[in-house]
Amino acid sequence: MKRVFSGVQPTGNLHIGNYLGALKQFVELQDEAECVYCVVDMHSITLPQDPKELRSHILDIAALYMAVGIDPKRSTIFVQSEVSQHAELSWVLTCNSYTGELSRMTQFKDKAKGKESAPTGIFSYPLLMAADILLYDSDIVPVGNDQKQHIELTRDIAIRVNNRFDKKVFVVPEGRFMKEGARIMALDDPTSKMSKSAENPHSRISLLDDDSKIKKSIMKATTDSLARVHYDVENQPGVANLMTIYSVFSGKSMEEIEKLYEGKGYGDFKKDLVEISIDGIRPIRERFNEIRRSQELITALDEGREKASVIAERTLKRVFDTFGLGRK
Ligand code: TYM
Fold first, then answer.
1. How far, in Å, CA of 213 to CA of 205, rounded?
2. Which residue ranges have their beta carbon within 6 Å of ligand 1?
3. CA of 54 to the centre of ligand 1 (A)
4. Widest CA span of the chain, in angstroms?
5. 61 with 284: CB under 8 angstroms?
6. How big is the chain by its Cα radius of gyration, in Å?
7. Residue 172 in contact with residue 18, Cβ under 8 Å?
8. Which domains are assigned to the chain?
9. For residue 195, is it left (φ>0), alpha (ψ between -120 and 50) or beta?
10. Cα–Cα distances in Å, from 144 out to 93, 149, 261, 276?
11. CA 17 to centroid of ligand 1, rounded, Å
C-alpha cells in the first residue's frame, strides 16, 4: 500500500484555500493509501509565535483535521515537535543540499526580500519539510501549488543521496495537486494567493467563519465589469477564482456553472456561492466545536505520536547507518 504524508502549519485558522487545495485530498486519499498527517509546528517558529497561541493553534489544526473527515482510526495524526527524528533527519539533509538550490526557492525570495536580517529558518525551512516527507518513506504528498518547488527539492535530495550510496536510502516522493483548487486566490485581490496571514479578513474564508462572515466576504469579493460568469483566468481572475471555489464545493464543472448563469449577473452567482460555501463549511465548523475540547482529540494525538515515532525511528536508523552515524 502506498504511503501518503502531508502537513499544515499551525499559524492561524485554516482557510478554504488550505481545504480545497490540500485537506480535501487528505480525506480522499484515506480510501486508497496509508496516510500520515502532521501538524508541522516546528515550521511555524520560522517567524516569532506567541507560545500560548501556538499551543492552542496546534490543537486547532489537529481538531480541524478530524473535523474535515480525517479518521484517526485509519490515518495517523500527530504533532511534529513530539517526534524528534524530524529535526535529526533535517540536519542530514542540510548536509546534502546546496545553498544555491535553497536560494532559488521562491517562498524564500518572497519572504526574505534580499535582507541580511532574514531568519535562517526561512532559508533552511524546505529541508525540514523534506525531512518530514522522507522520514515516512512517503510515496505521495498532497499539497497546494505553492509547495511544488519544495517537493521538487525533496526529490532532488532523495535522488542525490540514493545515487551517492548506490542504493534506495530514500523513497522518492511525488506531489499530488488538485485539478481545481490547487491555488485559491485572495477574494480581495485575485492576483495573490489566499493566505492565513493577510491583513484583510475578507481576503479569505476561514473554516471557522460563521455564516454571516462567509456571506459578507463573498459578497465583497472582487469581480470585474464584464458581468458574465465565464472562466477566463487571465481576463476575469476574480470571477475565475469564485468559479473554482463554486466548482470544488459543488462538484460542478466550469461549463455547467457557465450554463447555469448564462445571461445572469454576478449577484445571482454570488448568492448561490454563499449558500454552497456555507453548506460546505458549516458541518466542519460544528464538528470542530465538538472535537476541539474532547478527549478524543488528545487520544488521537497520543496514538498518532506512537505510530509516527515507530516509522520515523526505523527510517532514521537506516539513514544514520548508511552515513556511518551512531544510532543504538
Ligand atoms: P501551509 O501550512 O502554508 O498550507 C497547508 C496546505 O495548504 C495549501 N495551500 C493552498 N492551496 C490552495 N490555495 C491556497 N491559497 C493555499 N494556501 C495554502 C498548501 O500548499 C499546503 O498544502 N510547507 C507547508 C507545510 C509542510 C508540509 C510538509 C507539507 C511542512 N512539511 C511536508 C507537505 C509535506 C506549508 O507551509 O503549508
1. 8
2. 5-9, 17-18, 21-22, 40, 43, 129, 132-133, 141, 143-144, 146-147, 182-184, 193-194
3. 17
4. 71
5. no
6. 21
7. no
8. 3-182+294-323 (3.40.50.620), 201-289 (1.10.240.10)
9. beta
10. 23, 11, 28, 22
11. 9
Closest CA to 1 of 32, 30, 36: 32
Residues 150 and 27 sit within 8 Å (Cβ to Cβ): no
Cα atoms found within 13 Å of the Cα of residue 76, Cβ hemisphere only: 24
Q: How many CB atoms lie within 10 A of CB 160?
A: 15
Cβ(156)–Cβ(101) below 8 Å: yes
CB atoms under 10 Å from CB of 272, counted, come to 17
Q: What is the pLDDT of residues 277-294, one digit of tens each?
A: 999 999 999 999 999 999
Buried b (16+ CB within 10 A) or exposed e, 273-311: bbebbbebbeebbebbeebbeeeebeebbeebbeebeeb
pTM (2 decimals)?
Answer: 0.96
Distance from first CA to last CA of the chain, Å, rounded? 29
Angle at 247 between CA 189 and CA 34, to 5 degrees: 105
Q: What's the angle, vertex CA 196, arms to CA 195 and CA 198, rounded to 5? A: 65
Residue 12 pLDDT > 90, yes or no? no
Tens digit of each residue's pLDDT (9 = 90 or more) over 84-142: 999 999 999 999 999 999 999 999 998 888 899 899 999 999 999 999 999 999 999 99
